[in-house]
Design brief:
By secondary structure, the chain is α+β, with helices and mostly antiparallel strands.
Length: 343
């Protein structure tokens, strides 16, 4: 690092502490890749993943100016003003400055918040994640992620058409891309705010939170295939992938595990949408539609998502033989194919 800074003026103009920390972050990333725990580290792209991490931060490196604004000390720049959204916890030793695609700069102080204590009421809730309903609770609540409004969606369509007509590398194309990025950041902010509020509410209300065990990364993979074996219905699968990612499935569970540490249980949700939550009878005919469930055995009628999430809340998984198993040993096994429903 010393020799490189002496050879290049642009590298010498930056903070040596930040550059050394980048090398320290890169070393464990390579170890994780060669160890098989993570994917290969990728290059940063212009306009994406912009930012740096500053370590060795002390209490006097940040201060509050008024109710809305504060200041943080950035090497080579001095005091930088930012909007104060929450108190800086004690004992913070580092912060990260990032720039998103919308051109906004953010500063995040590294701190691990304490988990929310259990209320002690013994209540258990199940959470079923979906596309039409973002999160269905076993209490009967149906939660939806706030999306872009109709007017904003129309603006997105117009901007995408305008972007297709722009010449690559032109200033007009950059302005249109910036407008699209701001709308995308607005949707992302709303989704993240919704996840934070829902996870906090569930952690405060329930002692045990049971969610279905899903592999979101595998579910949202592209279906295009290869040149030798091209995929089918690729565009439809791409639309489904976007709809799944827009619901924040993975973010919701990760925030629940942070806030309700040790109280989140992942249940194998095989056939929970086809099983009656009242009598336990399983039949594909009971699922009348995507949103309606009527048991052909006992006549129970309710929302299909609520019926499935009640089975999840009960901690029951369906084995290959079709028997309802209590939560426990069956939760850590992969769901098997039920040959009675095949064909």
């Amino acid at each position: 690092m010393t020799e490189a800074r002496a050879a290049f003026a642009w590298l010498r103009a930056g903070s040596q502490v930040v550059q050394q920390q980048a090398l320290r972050d890169f070393a464990p990333a390579l170890r994780n890749f060669f160890g098989g725990a993570h994917r290969r580290p990728t290059w940063r792209k212009a306009g994406q993943h912009e930012g740096f991490r500053q370590v060795g931060v002390r209490a006097e490196h940040s201060r509050r100016l008024n109710r809305r604004h504060g200041q943080v000390w950035v090497p080579k720049l001095g005091w930088v003003r930012f909007r104060w959204t929450r108190p800086v916890p004690d004992g913070v030793r580092s912060y990260r400055v990032t720039r998103d695609r919308a051109g906004r700069w953010h500063v995040a102080f590294a701190a691990v918040p304490a988990p929310i204590p259990a209320p002690g009421t013994g209540r258990v809730v199940g959470v079923d994640r979906g596309v039409a309903v973002s999160a269905a609770l076993s209490t009967g609540e149906l939660l939806h992620v706030p999306m872009l409004t109709v007017v904003e969606e129309r603006r997105v369509v117009r901007l995408r058409r305008r972007l297709a007509r722009c010449q690559r590398g032109s200033r007009r194309r950059a302005r249109v891309k910036g407008a699209l990025a701001r709308l995308s950041a607005r949707a992302k902010d709303r989704r993240k705010d919704w996840v934070e509020k829902v996870s906090t509410d569930l952690a405060r209300r329930f002692d045990v939170i049971r969610v279905e065990r899903l592999r979101v990364r595998d579910m949202t993979r592209s279906a295009r295939g290869t040149l030798a074996a091209p995929g089918r219905r690729v565009r439809q699968k791409a639309g489904l992938n976007r709809a799944i990612l827009a619901q924040g499935w993975g973010l919701l569970v990760s925030r629940l595990e942070h806030r309700a540490a040790g109280r989140v249980e992942r249940v194998v949700a095989a056939y929970t949408s086809l099983t009656c939550s009242a009598c336990g009878h399983r039949a594909s005919e009971s699922r009348e539609s995507q949103a309606s469930f009527r048991c052909v055995a006992c006549g129970l009628r309710l929302n299909a998502d609520v019926n499935a999430v009640r089975n999840i809340a009960a901690g029951r998984a369906v084995t290959a033989r079709g028997a309802l198993q209590p939560w426990g040993g069956a939760v850590n096994r992969e769901p098997q194919r039920d040959t009675s429903l095949a064909g």
